[in-house]
């Protein structure tokens, strides 16, 4: 169901139940703003007809972002003086440049200029800018390995430069810009950064509030001076927040880095052990095949002789101890009663 509203002697067609900000929108202005969620989706039918009896759309109003049939297009043009264009199923509502989040083009340009001027007026040191850019969560890569990879040498970051507080690769530590710096392992870097005391943002906020309250009640403080002082305090608070954010995110990177390195080392060890076991299995399989072939042939081939010789043999029984003889003893022949026969040999 659609309704028609009179706004400054102009008719505006809109869906029943939709909410429009009439205080900031006029249908004659190219910067007219509508809530995108309240706008109907173009399905090829007239947006002004009854839903059950909607006719095919033939015209499109780029300002209102509505599609109309011939009859409603004529009424809309007469009431709003908007320029319509032929409707096509491939047409999409105009985006962007004219409206951004309910703001007109002029307002967006003005806001962008103010933001650019504010950003350009702040003087930051390079190190602080690097920390701030690294602390922006929206720009962080979700893939740990790629995020921690050295951008200069494309090597995995496996070491840490304590002077620059940066994860570096082996090439950087040996022959790169960090070759003369103190280099430690990732685990040592994590424990070192974790031992540092973080910034107490709550205490800083309370202290800033007390300072502002003191300046506020001071009779010697002019409004302009008070405004500058408040801006300075909030700028300092923002700087502390960015530093603390960078510290926490840097700890996360360090922990991910050394855990990833440990996992990679374990995987390498498992791979080497697996390859060794695979080689042993292949050798055993080959030997079993040769034994089966020899058993079917009934003759052990010469190639199996080393294998059979290498098989463990059952332990042999130890030899019986022999009686020790006295080397100084002289054998003595004892004769029997019968002539010419030796009966016993005694010592």
Automatic annotation (TrEMBL):
Stretches for region Disordered: 80-99, 119-141, 303-347
Family matches, as Pfam families: zf-B_box
Residues spanning the signal sequence: none
Extent of Polar residues compositional bias: 80-92
Compositionally biased tracts (Basic and acidic residues): 319-331
GO terms of molecular function: zinc ion binding
Keyword set, alphabetical order: Metal-binding, Zinc, Zinc-finger
Domain of life: Eukaryota
PANTHER family: E3 UBIQUITIN-PROTEIN LIGASE TRIM (PTHR24103)
Designated name of the protein: Tripartite motif containing 44
Lineage: Eukaryota, Metazoa, Chordata, Craniata, Vertebrata
């Amino acid at each position: 169901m659609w309704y028609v509203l009179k706004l400054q002697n102009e008719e505006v067609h809109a869906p029943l139940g939709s909410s429009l900000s009439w205080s900031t929108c006029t249908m004659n202005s190219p910067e007219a703003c509508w809530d995108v969620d309240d706008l109907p989706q173009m399905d090829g039918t007239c947006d002004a007809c009854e839903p059950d009896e909607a006719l095919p759309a033939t015209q499109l109003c780029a300002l209102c972002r509505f599609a109309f049939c011939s009859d409603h297009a004529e009424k809309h043009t007469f009431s709003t003086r908007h320029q319509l264009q032929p409707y096509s199923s491939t047409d999409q509502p105009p985006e962007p440049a004219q409206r951004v989040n309910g703001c007109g083009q002029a307002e967006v340009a003005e806001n962008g200029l103010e933001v650019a001027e504010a950003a350009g007026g702040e003087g930051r040191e390079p190190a602080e800018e690097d920390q701030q850019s690294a602390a922006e969560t929206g720009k962080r890569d979700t893939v740990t390995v790629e995020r921690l990879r050295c951008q200069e040498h494309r090597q995995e970051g496996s070491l840490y430069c304590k002077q620059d507080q940066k994860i570096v690769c082996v090439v950087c530590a040996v022959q790169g810009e960090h070759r003369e710096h103190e280099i430690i392992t990732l685990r040592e870097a994590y424990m070192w950064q974790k031992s540092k005391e973080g910034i107490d943002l709550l205490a800083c906020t309370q202290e800033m509030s007390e300072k502002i309250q003191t300046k506020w009640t001071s009779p010697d403080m002019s409004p302009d001076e008070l405004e500058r002082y408040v801006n300075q305090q909030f700028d300092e608070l923002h700087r502390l927040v960015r530093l603390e954010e960078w510290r926490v995110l840097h700890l996360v990177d360090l922990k991910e880095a050394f855990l990833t390195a440990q996992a990679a080392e374990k995987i390498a060890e498992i791979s080497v052990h697996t390859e060794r076991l695979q080689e042993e299995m292949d050798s055993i399989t080959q030997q079993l095949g040769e034994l089966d072939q020899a058993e079917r042939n009934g003759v052990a081939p010469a190639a199996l002789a080393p294998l059979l010789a290498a098989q463990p043999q059952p332990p042999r029984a130890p030899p019986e101890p022999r009686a020790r003889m006295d080397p100084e003893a002289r054998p003595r022949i004892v004769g029997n009663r019968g002539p010419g026969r030796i009966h016993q040999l005694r010592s």
